[in-house]
Write a structure and sequence with these properties.
Elements (H helix, E strand, L loop, with lengths): L13 H14 L10 H6 L10 E16 L4 E10 L5 E6 L12 E9 L2 E9 L20 E10 L16 H10 L4 H8 L5 E3 L10 E6 L9 H14 L9 E5 L13 E4 L6 E5 L5 H11 L5 E3 L29 H6 L10 E3 L4 E5 L13 E6 L4 E7 L11 H4 L2 E6 L7 E6 L5 E4 L4 E8 L4 E7 L7 E5 L2 E4 L5 E8 L9 E9 L4 E5 L2 E4 L4 E9 L5 E9 L11 E9 L8 E8 L2 E7 L9 E8 L2 E6 L3 E4 L7 E10 L11 E4 L10
Parallel strand pairs: 3-5, 6-7, 6-8, 6-9, 9-11, 12-18, 13-15, 23-30
Antiparallel strand pairs: 1-2, 1-4, 1-10, 2-3, 4-5, 10-11, 14-21, 15-16, 16-17, 17-18, 19-20, 20-21, 22-24, 24-28, 25-27, 25-29, 26-28, 29-30, 31-32, 32-35, 33-34, 33-36, 36-37
Helix pairs in contact: 4-6
């Protein structure tokens, strides 16, 4: 997420203030549930940062939601995790804006501080193989997505309806199907055109020869409180009762009464960021095709298209780029070059996308026309001082871009974007003939020579400007036992301008944890804009503390400028075993013996990671939940069970209370 502030109508981006506000409400016992009154949260002033709470570690599945108030030019993002073991839903808060790799459906381990149903997260680590990866988290382009399947459900509430008079109803299934699938400029047609046929939404997944738009269903819930999750659950039940097979679809789109009837919501659209087994979007402006395209864009991990004409990294208007559906324009336009690269649409064609690292003359074909391999449609230039990229594209007022303002069609458009993942794209400017763009901090100059209907000719030049390298250590926090040895990884990036030569960096590690530390390699040569990795080993750790990696540039490219870089990580020592589980009980079930128990706690700080299950003193299994079914015993046999807890550094508790049970006899010799 972007941490900048806007100059127009936002003083602070809503996500952080929203989350901090929720945490403060939790501290006073006023916790809003998942389905809570969003408008009330948004209207509260930003309080002081939340502190305190109990250490906690949770393994669960993420749900990330982005809400859009297009009229007010504001949005919010909320993060939730559902605990695998207890199924409890927590809302997450962050000391800093969370990373771009947090998506709905991801299975994660979260360490932080808890107060009620809110966790102030310190570390969020993705479990291997979790969630649908719509986009990666590095700088490589994402894999191309193919055909998507969506079910659209029209919903009426007890006190808000799509149509007051059914005889003159506008928002019918046919009307919505036209917006989504059948109109010349439908949502489906837009995605197909922008992706050059690589991404579409199937109109008829269930094979009934009709677009997959059903309803409207009358659900017995009020508009009061904006309980969008409950509305969705009720709509799902109504759709299933009507014969819909929800398992066929990756997307569920809920078309609600117009947002003027939903004052407690404060949004015209709401959507999951990323998809797990499926993802959801809520539409409260059913007459606008672009709202459907926008919210489905969030499902596909696209963030907003904003503006930053000063190019200082501070966004002026997060919806301000009207050349892209992720802005707030209701007119139909293709996605900008940064989003096209993010989704992998350009990379699928020869020469359609180029990474520019050398000075020279470049010719650009208009974005949105089928690539033929002769000219690129997007150029990408690294911006080393900030770690993001400039995207250069050319647009013409034809086809889906026929209504583009002349601001975007007079010459080459310049956007900034992180390169991948869920982050804002920012439109900076477009160049007329003879115009130029300069980034003196990175020695980059772009000027436009000529342009026509089929191409634009530009000059790109690079000078040498030295920058301090960036240093990142992972994990940022790691828990260990006293006296142990641990290894951390570091990523060093040369942020010098592209016109500079490679730099030799000297690496050294220091620590405040006791013991010794070392880094490998001790020196490394890195070209501008490129990165390299190193390994830090800390041995004989005696106390919690900080590990620091210092990177020095000994090349002396610019003696007047400090070229050192540093990165830090925290090592936390847990020398205490967790408490034993309590209230262990057993019961006979069809497949054996089911054990249940109450959760343990860990005062050492690393958190309870798993539970070990013992039968007659021998370990038979492990689980992260608070139950376990033993189906390996012999029928007619008496067993005694105990359970222990294991924390994040491997300490095991003592035994829980024991429970003894005799399995039923059966002719097959297996427990029943």
């Amino acid at each position: 997420m972007n941490t900048s502030t806007t100059r127009s109508r936002l003083v602070n981006l809503v996500p952080k203030s929203l989350l901090i506000c929720t945490l403060m409400l939790a501290a006073t016992g006023q916790v809003f549930a998942h389905d809570g009154d969003m408008q009330t949260l948004l209207s509260r002033p930003q309080p002081a940062p939340f502190v305190g709470g109990q250490p906690i570690m949770v393994q669960g599945e993420l749900e990330v939601l982005h809400g859009d108030d297009f009229t007010g030019s504001r949005s919010f993002v909320r993060y939730f995790v559902r605990n695998f073991a207890t199924h409890q839903l927590f809302e997450l808060g962050f000391d800093e804006e969370p990373g771009r790799d947090l998506l709905s459906g991801q299975k994660v381990v979260i360490r932080g501080r808890a107060m009620g149903s809110v966790i102030w997260a310190k570390d969020v680590v993705s479990l291997a193989g979790s969630g649908e990866t719509a986009q990666g988290s590095g700088t490589a382009a994402a894999p191309v997505l193919t055909e998507r399947k969506a079910l659209t459900i029209l919903v009426n509430l007890t006190d808000a309806t799509l149509c007051a008079d059914p005889n003159t109803c506008t928002y019918t299934t046919g009307y919505v199907a036209d917006k989504l699938y059948t109109a010349t400029q439908s949502m489906r047609a837009l995605y197909l055109n922008s992706s050059y046929g690589q991404l579409g939404f199937k109109a008829d997944t269930n094979g009934d020869q009709q677009p997959d738009v059903i309803g409207p269903f009358q659900i017995g819930l009020s508009r009061i409180g904006c309980n969008y999750s409950s509305w969705a659950s009720a709509a799902d039940s109504a759709a299933q009762a009507a014969g819909a097979d929800l398992s066929l679809y990756q997307h569920r789109i809920y078309v609600l009464p117009p947002y003027s009837q939903l004052p407690d919501c404060g949004w015209a659209g709401l959507a999951n960021v990323g998809c797990g087994t499926y993802c959801r979007s809520w539409i409260a402006e059913p007459e606008s095709m672009m709202v459907y395209a926008h919210e489905l864009g969030h499902n596909l991990n696209m963030a907003h298209a904003g503006t930053d004409p000063e190019n200082d990294g501070v966004m002026n208007d997060e919806y301000g780029d009207s050349s892209d559906p992720m802005g707030s324009s209701r007119l139909v336009h293709n996605f900008n070059g940064a989003h096209s690269h993010q989704l992998g649409w350009l990379s699928a064609f020869t020469n359609a996308y180029q990474s520019v690292t050398t000075s020279g003359t470049y010719n650009l074909a208009p974005l949105g026309t089928p690539p033929d391999g002769s000219l690129p449609q997007a150029l990408r230039i690294a911006k080393p001082d900030s770690g993001d990229y400039y995207y250069l594209t050319y647009r013409q007022p034809t086809g889906f871009d026929s209504s583009l303002p002349s601001t975007y069609t007079r010459g080459v458009n310049i956007h900034r974007y992180k390169g991948s993942g869920y982050d804002y794209t920012k439109f900076i400017n477009s160049l007329p003939d003879g115009g130029f763009f300069s980034d003196p901090a990175n020695g980059i100059t772009v000027s436009q020579t000529t342009h026509g209907t089929s191409s634009a000719l530009i000059q790109v030049s690079f000078g040498c400007v030295a920058q301090s390298p960036s240093v990142a250590i992972t994990p940022t926090t790691i828990w260990v036992k006293p006296g142990s040895t641990t290894a951390l990884s570091a990523q060093i990036t040369n942020r010098d301008a592209a016109g500079c030569s490679a730099t030799t960096f000297q690496l050294s590690a220091s620590h405040t944890t006791g013991g010794t530390s070392a880094v490998t390699p001790a020196s490394t040569s890195v070209a501008p804009g490129q990165g390299t990795s190193a390994s830090i080993t800390v041995a004989g750790i005696s106390s919690s503390g900080t590990v620091t990696l210092t990177v020095k540039d000994n090349d002396g490219v610019d003696p007047s400028h400090s070229l050192d870089g540093q990165g830090t990580a925290q090592i936390a020592v847990d020398g205490t075993a967790p408490s034993a589980p309590t209230n262990l009980s057993s019961a006979l079930v069809t497949k054996g013996v089911k054990l249940t128990w109450s959760s343990a706690s860990d005062s050492g700080g690393s958190g309870v990671a798993t539970y070990y299950v013992y039968r007659n003193g021998a370990k038979i299994g492990a689980t992260t939940s608070l139950s376990y079914t033993d189906s390996t015993g012999t029928s007619g046999t008496t067993y005694t069970y105990t359970v222990t807890s294991v924390d994040g550094v491997g300490y095991e508790s003592g035994n829980s209370n024991s429970t003894t049970i005799t399995t039923k006899s059966s002719k097959g010799g297996k427990p029943r």
